[in-house]
Amino acid sequence: MYRARVGGRDVAVKVLRPGVMANVAADSFLIRALCILGEGIKNPFTGARVIKPALIDGCDEFFSRIFEEADYRHEAQNMVRILLTVLSWLFA
Q1: Residue numbers of the domain that contains 25
Q2: Has residue 75 got a pLDDT over 90?
Q3: How far apart are CA 76 and CA 12, in angstroms?
Q4: Degrees to nearest 5, angle at CA 86 with 77 and 80
């Protein structure tokens, strides 16, 4: 995230570097695999899981948010929706 000035106004600039999302996808695959292994670890004495079973779900949620944030068209659509909602509240 960078700061810039456009037409005398401060703006935020997000830059998506080439190849970054391929790296994130590879990371998500590896981390998810580790989560699957982690969820399978059991206490040798009780047989109970050592790690809570929501680990994979948490991993999936985390990476889905990262992919969502990197979709700038989707983010722009959300910004327009928010603007329209706020305007509807102000002028209702």
Answers
A1: 19-90
A2: no
A3: 13
A4: 15
